[in-house]
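P.,

For your records, the input lines for the assembly:
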Amino acid sequence: MNSAGRVRAAAVELFATKGFHGTGIRDLAQRAELSSATLYHYMGTKEDLLVEIMTTALQRLLDAAEQVTTEAGDPVARLRALVALHVLAHAVSPGETRVVDNEVDALSADARGRVVALRDEYEQLWARIIEDGVGCGAFHTERPAVTRRALLEMCSGVARWYSPRGPLRLEELATHYAELALRALGNPAAVDTDEVRRCREVVARVWDIPVRAGN
Amino acid sequence: MNSAGRVRAAAVELFATKGFHGTGIRDLAQRAELSSATLYHYMGTKEDLLVEIMTTALQRLLDAAEQVTTEAGDPVARLRALVALHVLAHAVSPGETRVVDNEVDALSADARGRVVALRDEYEQLWARIIEDGVGCGAFHTERPAVTRRALLEMCSGVARWYSPRGPLRLEELATHYAELALRALGNPAAVDTDEVRRCREVVARVWDIPVRAGN
Amino acid sequence: MNSAGRVRAAAVELFATKGFHGTGIRDLAQRAELSSATLYHYMGTKEDLLVEIMTTALQRLLDAAEQVTTEAGDPVARLRALVALHVLAHAVSPGETRVVDNEVDALSADARGRVVALRDEYEQLWARIIEDGVGCGAFHTERPAVTRRALLEMCSGVARWYSPRGPLRLEELATHYAELALRALGNPAAVDTDEVRRCREVVARVWDIPVRAGN
Amino acid sequence: MNSAGRVRAAAVELFATKGFHGTGIRDLAQRAELSSATLYHYMGTKEDLLVEIMTTALQRLLDAAEQVTTEAGDPVARLRALVALHVLAHAVSPGETRVVDNEVDALSADARGRVVALRDEYEQLWARIIEDGVGCGAFHTERPAVTRRALLEMCSGVARWYSPRGPLRLEELATHYAELALRALGNPAAVDTDEVRRCREVVARVWDIPVRAGN
DNA sequence: GATGAATGAGGATTCATTCAT
DNA sequence: GATGAATGAATCCTCATTCAT
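Structure tokens returned:
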């Protein structure tokens, strides 16, 4: 990896584990194996780095979500795809997702606005699908907005505990969460594993992470 | 409120919104309406304050959970109680719970050990109930551990968005989450609202927060 | 001991071991078993305390020195008495003497002037006796001023290492130092132990310290 | 002098005159003509600086002492050399030596152990030589350990009063102290000035201080 | 007498960032 | 590209001292 990449990777890892405010420029430099002055050849301010990480991560998730839900068919299939994608993204790049989920408050008002707008746009995908499912009788929930938040938090939580080195394979993880989500929405249908696999391939391509047979 | 209470309240609020590392001693002092030197009459180090907040919050949750699950009957009732309690606790004191959930990494190794031990003990309550429910055929899940984590994250997420000033009343919130959890566990039984009310009363008493008719 | 005495004793002990600047008001309070606010009933400022310790210690030494040298006869006897007294004083109250010797620089200019004046007055006693001894042919030294300083440092050093709990008795210590001093002054006469005993009695009386048979 | 050198020189001077605890980081910065933040480019903590000063000073003294005593012949010559070296070192770098002598108590337990070990090693040189001299009948003292301490304190005291700008030249100072020491040890032999000159040359070389004809 | 509460000033140290080389 | 040197501002925390009770 080149220096710029090492800086970004270091930032993701440290921001995710120690928090933005808990991470010093010297920590970043050490992890990236550069002097702290050299860091500034590859980044603007520390906050710029955070903003870049957050927006690209959210944009990537948003793009992939639009892709997989467009490909899928009915609300059930689209929700399955959305859950699978979300869970896989959080399992495959827990650093970025934890930063996105936890460090919004560290942003300046201006940057926060842009990040929150992206996040809202993404959540709207969920809202629309759930709404559609309720509309066509596939989902049953008295409080769609509450349910949506509950499901999102449930899925995002994956980044807090899942390890690719554990026994649970990525597809199994995604399948299980899709099942949980559909049950919670009152539609305990069996999950089509082909769909999950398709999501996994999208993730592999978009996140540029070799998803090995192992998981 | 006295000075000591104001310090603690300020810490909870600021740690929850800006993070431990994002909160300066001067922020705390300003919020508590004290000079920064005076703060140190009421606390040890900043970390001591964090530890105190975390351990009392966790201990309170743990005690209340043991109480409500002991009172309840079968695994279904116990899980309902546990979910309701957890959700209510997170809705009623979102500050404390967010601190507990987000700032574990800010602790020194020693303190982290103690806090994580408490958290593990609490999670064991969930694990045992889910296990019992699966054992007696009430719950259906292929991966109890994964499901447990999913449900915990789902319920904890309440602290991130619920506002007591919104239209959703506390009991409705708890009831809805209990329903979601039971569905996810493959047992879409109707939720007994008496049980939820009992939990709400426990919360009102233990957290010493007047749960008004309004929510 | 009463509170005022405990404060003074604590100050002597702590100033001697940790230095004036290394000793905090809280250290003093803890050692004196008082609250730090209560300290101020028994003292002025921290520096006042230091000044009081230094001046009384120096004044006491000066008075005793004048007494024992007036009682003694020829320069040899007077020097023996002076050495014995100095050594005994440093052995018997190492705290005070270390403070006097080491903390002069911690004083404000004003107080320093007064303390240094006392110290100079005391050193003049030494100077005069050495001068007399050289004059009457009892002492031989080419540089009386250098020799005087050398002997004073040698004798003051006792406060850095002597312990009354060790095997060396006070009189033996004083006798040995008197011998060293006289040798250094070119007059290796045997030391009269009666004289040393008289000095010891003066020390016992003036310093109000029970000199037990043990040492 | 470069910045690092200025920091060290400032520390020696200030620690020597105001004590470790009496010297603030701002004092150091001002004396070194750097901002207090820049100080930390050239040092670790304030204590690290103290430890470095102490250990290098002691090590230098120890090395030089081993050199001059190895070169010298009988115990009398070796003691003369040791006294001369000690006195010259204290006269030539009074700052370092006063720090070594006075600030041991300011060290943390760990560092203190290392420093005291060095000091003990140095004192052992004195102990062995005195012991040898007593063994071969050159020295007469009933209490070698007490005498050793007395002589060491006497010689170290030089750093408290000697000024190279006074009338007393370095060689005269060292010669006089060697004479005092030998007298105190019961061997009032004349002091070989060649030996003292050799010590002075060692000091000039090891301490890298140009010993001018003037003193 | 005694003390808990209070504080402005200062303690050592680290911060993110710049810039000349 | 890369970095050692540099710094003003900020970090957490302790200082000696006062005062109302």
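Two observations worth noting. Chains A and D do not touch (no CB pair under 8 Å). Residues 3, 34-38, 41 of chain A lie near DNA strand F (CB under 10 Å from a C1').

Regards
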